[in-house]
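hey
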């Protein structure tokens, strides 16, 4: 705000008076144009109309008092016009302007009347959700969670799991291998893990028994995609090693887990099977959750659905673990292991018939799980 003092008037003819008041108006307008808030407006009002130091006062004392009697009337008239101009036009206009400036400021700060930007609520992917659900069933039994690399060595993925080089059981897991490793010994060659079982060995190498662990994770196989197969899928592995662990513990644990996942009415049954790393091995079937076991299209009229593999840890596997942890002595400890496909369980739980829906990223599908 300029506070140039008011100049003395030297001439009092009409023309000089008009010019002097025009200058005052220009001054006032210039300051007024810069007013952008109610505080600035108040300062402007004080500087021009203030009782003591207002410029209007100064004009009055300098010009009116100094004017020769014959010029007093003309000067007084212009003085009143100027005062009127200040009071009505300027103040009114400014008052409005500062109000809208204040309103704009307020709106910027917070306008709770605006609807706001809506953020869509995120949700866990059904695979992640199913995986955590499985993990929490076992966490409640005292299991902890283990992880391992998705790019794995031949040793952990196969050899230490008792698939010797050239063993036909390797053919059941068609493997994606990393290129150009022919010069490395077979055991060190890298591949995309075909199952989560290698984390059993990685865990035992790090921790002596007892071990109770679940291992959720991504696995890869060179399988053609169809309605129920995908070259990338997920598994949850389990391993329990302690003294006196028996097949009954395995049955009881998995029966409990299946009931926790699919409802207490579900029954389980164990069929002899083969896995290189367990002996004996079994496939676990659950009573069909769609027909309650009566027989339907989903269970191919059998009333049962095969869901996971399991068995008692093969002493040959403990022999590999003993290279790092001598306490895995099959004469003193025993254990069971199991492995299940997460997609398969999620498809059953949510009635999904195409595995590809999990990976398509289609919001129409994913928003069903919000
Ligand atoms: N690793 C097996 C597979 O991918 C699944 C499996 C079966 C894991 C039996 C286990 C087990 O731990 O005991 O086919």
């Amino acid at each position: 705000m300029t506070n140039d003092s008011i100049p003395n008037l030297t001439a009092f003819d009409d023309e000089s008076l008009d010019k002097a008041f025009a200058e005052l108006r220009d001054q006032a307008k210039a300051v007024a144009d810069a007013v952008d808030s109610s505080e600035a407006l108040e300062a402007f009002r004080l500087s021009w109309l203030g009782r003591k130091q207002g410029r209007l006062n100064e004009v009055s004392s300098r010009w009116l008092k100094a004017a020769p009697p014959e010029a007093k009337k003309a000067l007084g008239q212009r003085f009143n016009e100027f005062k009127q101009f200040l009071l009505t036009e300027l103040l009114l206009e400014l008052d409005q302007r500062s109000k809208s400036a204040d309103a704009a400021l307020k709106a910027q700060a917070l306008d709770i009347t605006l609807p706001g930007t809506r953020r869509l609520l995120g949700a866990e992917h059904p695979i992640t959700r199913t995986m955590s659900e499985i993990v929490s069933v076992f966490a409640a039994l005292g299991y902890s969670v283990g992880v391992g690399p998705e790019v794995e060595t031949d040793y952990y993925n196969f050899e230490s799991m008792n698939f010797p080089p050239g063993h036909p059981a390797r053919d059941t897991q068609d493997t994606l291998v990393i290129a150009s490793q022919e010069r490395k010994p077979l055991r060190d060659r890298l591949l995309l893990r075909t199952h989560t079982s290698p984390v059993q060995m990685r865990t035992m190498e790090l921790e002596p028994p007892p071990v109770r662990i679940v291992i959720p994770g991504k696995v890869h196989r060179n399988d053609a995609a169809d309605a129920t197969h995908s070259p990338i899928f997920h598994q949850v592995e389990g391993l329990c090693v302690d003294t006196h662990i028996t097949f009954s513990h395995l049955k009881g644990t998995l029966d409990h887990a299946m009931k926790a996942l699919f409802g207490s009415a579900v029954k389980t049954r164990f069929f002899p099977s083969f896995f290189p790393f367990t002996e004996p091995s079994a496939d676990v079937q659950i009573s069909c959750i769609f027909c309650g076991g009566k027989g339907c299209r989903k269970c191919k009229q059998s009333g049962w659905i095969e869901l996971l593999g399991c068995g008692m840890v093969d002493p040959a596997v403990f022999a590999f673990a003993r290279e790092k942890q001598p306490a895995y002595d099959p004469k003193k400890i025993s254990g069971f292991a199991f492995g299940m496909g997460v997609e398969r369980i999620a498809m059953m739980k949510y009635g999904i018939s195409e595995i590809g829906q999990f990976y398509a990223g289609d919001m129409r599908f994913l928003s069903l799980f919000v």
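Residues 11-108 form one domain. The pocket of 3,4-dihydroxyphenylalanine is lined by residues 195, 197, 237, 275, 278, 309-311, 337-339 (CB under 6 Å).
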